[in-house]
């Protein structure tokens, strides 16, 4: 690595941490504001810390774990596409916004080379990501589970901006389908880092993109737009959507994911709290990292009406705060009912609830926050429906017949029997109701079968559709995509039927196999099996979806435990 760049520098200064060995031309005032040829505050270079001693205070992006070296897909270990970390401190990639509204990025790499490679930032701008769940992106496609924008340093070429919303094949008029390419000579620099993750000097690749350029192609994008990002290196200078050429994804062990980048992207984005660039830019923000989200907790079931306590589990540290929320039966808004702390063994219990607080049909969920680690609150947990103390048996009707139709614009079926007053629910596989608040969501996520019906007909339509009945399948915005399930709660009962699962515009995943020996009893501590690598596995008990957190099947190995019964 040294010979690739250090030989061009004066020998005494060649390995001084902080020295710039590829300058940014006319962009030098942006990337090296004091113009002294160092990315450190002074020409003394980095001596103890290349974060706090940096001339520009970059804020490190959230990571799931320490960025390991030698976890690459294509590319040589410990070299120019291998992101490395700062002593397990989650410091592989930094982000800054300067007073002139330039967006600056810094990659910490195991080495440097003159090769043409890609150093990419995938950006989510709408708060929706992934193929399933309450925040699934309706534009998610294989290779791009929810990014709208991409900024990439293509070494030897330039700094590119891509529109990748809803596509894995960007088709802008610039190089490689980009919208624009700014000159490499003026928008990127390279410098020596303080770290030596691979027992030789690591390097920084810095580059920037002015907000004014971004707004030429994304006029609605501002400093107040909440964003989430991932950092990726690419063995060829092309968009991150070309997943076969991704070399390294920051903040995860790529090999542990079996190089399934759709899944890895989703996990990294889930750790990233929606963040406004204006907060990063603020001079009062002296932090050196963007705080990560805590991991999502689990609420245990059943939760019975009148219960004095709600309990569950969490992977966060002992003492982390669990906040529990209740949505009243038939309501839409969740409110806090109390908090608890994580105990030894990862359990938590909220006690002291009034006997009149929880009633049948209420929905209970929770968030976790490890404040000691500087994390922000997690996303919501699984949702558990409160059951009556003496519940009537759940419906055994499966709300899906030969008349069933499902398309990107709507869903319809006629059950053949009246089922007057029954409620049909439209949910994602994780149990959450499909959203109704956005302009691209469904108009309603529950349907009450009218009392004057004879055929038990029900339908769901996307925003923009005005049809009813089976016509919803052909009239409406084309927004529905992914996996869903529908269930029914008959009039006079207190819980839903088993879900009928269906897919819109997706490939059906192979049925998983349970390998745990029968019978499964109260003494069984885990349930295991096999499934398609990368597939999300949900546990059903006696035909009813359980509240245990779903797991992801690993590549080349049995699926992990699905929870303790």
List the helices and strands and how they pair.
Layout: H1 2-5, E1 20-22, H2 28-31, E2 59-60, E3 93-97, E4 102-109, E5 118-124, E6 149-154, E7 158-163, E8 180-183, H3 184-187, E9 188-192, E10 203-210, H4 211-217, E11 228-234, E12 246-249, H5 261-271, H6 277-281, E13 298-299, E14 310-313, E15 321-327, E16 335-341, E17 347-350, E18 363-369, E19 384-385, E20 405-407, E21 410-414, E22 423-427, E23 446-448, E24 457-461, E25 482-489, E26 500-504, E27 513-514, E28 529-530, E29 536-537, E30 540-541, E31 544-545, E32 551-552
Give an account of the 3D structure:
- It is a single chain.
- The chain is mostly beta strands.
- Helices cover 6% and strands 25% of the residues.
- It has helices spanning 2-5, 28-31, 184-187, 211-217, 261-271, 277-281, and strands at residues 20-22, 59-60, 93-97, 102-109, 118-124, 149-154, 158-163, 180-183, 188-192, 203-210, 228-234, 246-249, 298-299, 310-313, 321-327, 335-341, 347-350, 363-369, 384-385, 405-407, 410-414, 423-427, 446-448, 457-461, 482-489, 500-504, 513-514, 529-530, 536-537, 540-541, 544-545, 551-552.
- The strands form nine sheets. Strands 1-9-10-4-3-2 form a six-stranded antiparallel sheet. It has a six-stranded antiparallel sheet with strand order 8-7-6-5-11-12.
- A hairpin with a 2-residue loop joins strand 30 (540-541) and strand 31 (544-545).
- The chain is globular and about 80 Å long.
Largest beta sheet, briefly? 6 strands, antiparallel
Question: Roughly how many Å apart are the termini?
Answer: 53 Å
User: Helicity level, as a percent range?
Assistant: under 10%
Q: Whole-number radius of gyration? A: 26 Å
Give the strand tally.
32
Low-confidence stretches: 1-13, 556-565
By helix and strand content, what is the structural category? mainly beta
So what's the overall shape? Answer: globular
The whole-number mean of residue pLDDT values reads 86
Task: Provide the domain count.
Answer: 4
> Into which percentage range does the β-strand content fall?
25-35%
Order of strands side by side in the largest beta sheet? 1-9-10-4-3-2
- In DSSP terms, counting alpha (H) and pi (I) runs of 4 or more, how many helices? 6
């Amino acid at each position: 690595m040294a010979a690739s760049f250090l030989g061009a520098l004066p020998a005494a200064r060649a390995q001084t941490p902080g020295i710039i060995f590829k300058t940014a031309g006319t962009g030098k005032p942006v990337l090296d504001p004091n113009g002294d040829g160092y990315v450190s505050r002074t020409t003394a270079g980095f001596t103890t810390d290349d974060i706090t001693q940096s001339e520009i205070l970059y804020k490190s992006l959230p990571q799931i774990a320490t960025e390991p070296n030698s976890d690459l897909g294509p590319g040589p270990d410990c070299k120019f596409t291998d992101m490395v970390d700062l002593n397990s401190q989650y410091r592989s990639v930094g982000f800054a916004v300067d007073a002139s509204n330039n967006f600056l990025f810094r990659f910490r790499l195991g080495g440097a080379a003159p090769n043409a490679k890609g150093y990419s930032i995938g950006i989510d701008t709408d708060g929706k990501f992934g193929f399933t769940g309450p925040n699934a992106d309706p534009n998610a496609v294989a290779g791009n589970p929810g990014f709208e924008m991409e900024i990439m340093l293509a070494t030897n070429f330039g700094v590119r901006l891509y529109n990748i919303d809803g596509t894995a094949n960007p088709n802008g008029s610039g190089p490689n389908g980009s919208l624009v390419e700014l000159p490499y000579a003026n928008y990127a620099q390279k410098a020596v880092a303080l770290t030596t993750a691979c027992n030789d000097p690591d390097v920084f690749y810095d580059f920037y993109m002015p907000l004014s350029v971004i707004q030429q192609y994304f006029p609605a994008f501002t400093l107040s737009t909440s964003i989430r990002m991932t950092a990726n290196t690419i063995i060829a200078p092309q968009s991150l959507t070309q997943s076969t050429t991704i070399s390294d994804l920051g903040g995860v062990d790529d090999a542990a994911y079996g190089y399934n980048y759709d899944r890895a992207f989703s996990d990294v984005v889930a750790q990233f709290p929606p963040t406004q660039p204006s907060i990063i830019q603020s001079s009062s923000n002296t932090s050196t990292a963007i705080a990560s989200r805590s991991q999502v907790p689990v609420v245990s079931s059943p939760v019975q009406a009148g219960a004095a306590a709600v309990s569950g589990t969490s992977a966060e540290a002992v003492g982390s705060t669990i906040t529990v929320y209740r949505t009243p039966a038939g309501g839409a808004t969740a409110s806090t009912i109390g908090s608890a702390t994580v105990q030894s063994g990862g359990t938590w219990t909220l006690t002291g609830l009034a006997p009149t607080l929880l009633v049948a049909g209420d929905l209970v969920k929770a968030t976790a926050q490890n404040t000691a680690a500087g994390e922000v609150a997690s996303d919501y947990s699984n949702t558990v429906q409160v059951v009556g103390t003496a519940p009537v048996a759940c419906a055994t009707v499966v709300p899906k017949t030969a008349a069933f139709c499902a398309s990107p614009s709507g869903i319809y079926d006629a059950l053949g029997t009246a089922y007057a007053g029954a409620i049909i629910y439209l949910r994602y596989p994780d149990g959450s109701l499909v959203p109704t608040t956005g302009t691209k969501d469904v108009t309603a996520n529950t349907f009450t079968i009218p009392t004057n019906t004879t055929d038990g007909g029900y339908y769901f339509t996307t925003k923009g559709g005005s049809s009813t009945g089976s016509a919803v399948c052909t009239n409406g915005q084309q927004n529905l995509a992914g996996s869903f399930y529908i269930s029914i709660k008959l009039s006079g009962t207190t819980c839903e039927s088993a879900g009928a699962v269906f897919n819109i515009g997706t490939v059906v995943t192979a049925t998983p196999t349970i390998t745990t020996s029968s019978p499964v009893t109260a003494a069984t501590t885990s349930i295991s099996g096999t499934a398609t690598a990368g597939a999300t596995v949900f546990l059903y008990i006696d035909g009813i979806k359980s509240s245990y957190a779903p797991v992801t099947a690993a590549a080349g190995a049995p699926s992990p435990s699905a929870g303790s019964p």
